[in-house]
Design the sequence.
């Protein structure tokens, strides 16, 4: 395909250099946004009298035909083109001749690329937010069933205090609500129109950038033309938000993997989201969760690649910036892939409350409540803390648990122990007595569920 810029050059670009320079194999996915931006630009040119209205109408009509032809497969994208922008313009010129050549008046590929990627990322961010909302719905589905299901809560991967399964799941729910907020905040800062910045300095034509901004759904225009073509902060911000999504998915995956193991056996994953072994017939592997955990590193790499590309680029546009797309596109594809399989995996898993309760009973996770029992009888907390530590050591030596000691044994440690101690250290009471805001009792779980429902 002939180059739009070839008039300056006496020799054709070397074939290997041409292949190296080309971005069509990855930026072709932006053909809709490229056409959308070009339609708005053509309409503005006509409105300002820069090109004839009849020419603009023909350009807009034919661009719509090109979009439909690409989508239907009638027009394959030519992978020998330099990029999607040149492909669309060349096809338009092929169909309309000189009329098509008028489209590029008062714009550059620099601002064209900048507007295309903003439009594309805005749409992809919207879809990822919707997928995160589906994940929140899966979390709520499980949480609503387990507001009274007791399990051990952990610190340092050691059993620490009793919580409900719902409370644990809802902690991830809160993380994903923040992820949605981060993505939406990044989109707000991104949603300004760079089109009309041209190469870097604007144009001598009396254009109306606010018109194209309105047509393209932007909140305004970029106020500095150099910044308009060279800004990729929004790519970094979105990549950071996507990396945080993946970090949360990875932590969740790690817990799913642990919970599904025979050592924990808190959950049973559905057969549809597990695989077997080629040699060990008894295996049921949590491969989906493991892959999500593994793909997190890939998105981290995309973020670091973007930061590294941008760190030494002087203003304004440089060809290095072509590297922005593969990183952000890969991150988008990876996040969407993970968010496709994670919600149904979560929704179809089966909790095993009896196993959770047994694990909670064996971990002395009501020891803090035992100390609180004494503190409420005016024993200084540090004294109560030390005393309960001695009682736990005694239980370990006797191979028993706090619930199975008799009152005489308790009173041998301190005379203030009475029979009501057994109610104070019951796991159900331990959970329900966590009355502070955000605690693990049933009322708190229901409040958190309502918050997330309203958020969605």
Sequence:
């Amino acid at each position: 395909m002939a180059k739009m810029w070839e008039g300056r050059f006496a020799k054709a670009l070397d074939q290997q250099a041409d292949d190296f320079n080309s971005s069509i194999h990855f930026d072709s996915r932006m053909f809709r946004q490229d056409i959308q931006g070009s339609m708005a630009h053509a309409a503005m040119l006509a409105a300002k009298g820069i090109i004839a209205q009849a020419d603009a109408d023909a350009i807009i009509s034919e661009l719509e035909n090109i979009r439909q032809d690409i989508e239907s497969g009638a027009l394959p994208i030519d992978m020998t083109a330099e990029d999607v922008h040149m492909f669309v313009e060349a096809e338009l010129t092929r169909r309309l001749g000189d009329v098509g050549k008028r489209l590029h008046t008062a714009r550059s590929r620099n601002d064209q690329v900048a507007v295309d990627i903003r439009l594309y990322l805005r749409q992809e961010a919207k879809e990822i937010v919707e997928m995160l909302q589906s994940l929140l719905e899966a979390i709520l589905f499980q949480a609503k069933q387990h507001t009274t299901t007791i399990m051990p809560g952990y610190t340092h991967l050691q059993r620490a205090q009793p919580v409900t399964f719902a409370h644990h799941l809802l902690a991830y729910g809160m993380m994903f609500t923040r992820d949605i907020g981060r993505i939406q905040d990044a989109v707000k800062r991104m949603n300004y129109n760079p089109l009309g910045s041209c190469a870097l300095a604007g144009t001598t034509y009396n254009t109306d950038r606010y018109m194209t901004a309105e047509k393209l759904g932007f909140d305004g225009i970029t106020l500095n033309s150099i910044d308009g073509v060279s800004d990729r902060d929004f790519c970094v911000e979105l990549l950071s938000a996507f990396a945080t999504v993946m970090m949360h998915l990875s932590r969740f995956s790690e817990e799913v993997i642990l919970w599904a193991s025979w050592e924990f056996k808190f959950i049973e994953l559905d057969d549809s989201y597990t695989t077997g072994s080629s040699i060990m017939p008894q295996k049921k592997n949590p491969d989906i969760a493991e892959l999500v955990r593994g793909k997190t590193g890939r998105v981290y790499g995309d973020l670091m690649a973007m930061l590294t590309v941008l760190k030494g680029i002087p203003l304004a546009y440089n060809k290095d910036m072509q590297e922005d797309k593969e990183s952000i596109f890969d991150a988008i594809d990876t996040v969407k892939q993970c968010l496709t399989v994670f919600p149904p995996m979560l929704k179809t898993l089966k909790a095993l409350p009896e196993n959770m309760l047994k694990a909670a009973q064996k971990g002395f996770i009501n020891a803090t409540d035992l100390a609180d029992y004494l503190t409420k009888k005016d024993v200084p907390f540090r004294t109560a803390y030390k005393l309960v530590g001695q009682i736990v050591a005694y239980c370990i030596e006797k191979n028993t648990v706090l619930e199975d000691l008799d009152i005489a044994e308790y009173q041998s440690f301190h005379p203030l122990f009475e029979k009501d101690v057994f109610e104070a250290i019951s796991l159900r009471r331990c959970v329900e007595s966590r009355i502070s805001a955000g605690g693990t009792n049933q009322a708190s779980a229901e409040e958190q569920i309502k918050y997330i429902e309203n958020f969605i």
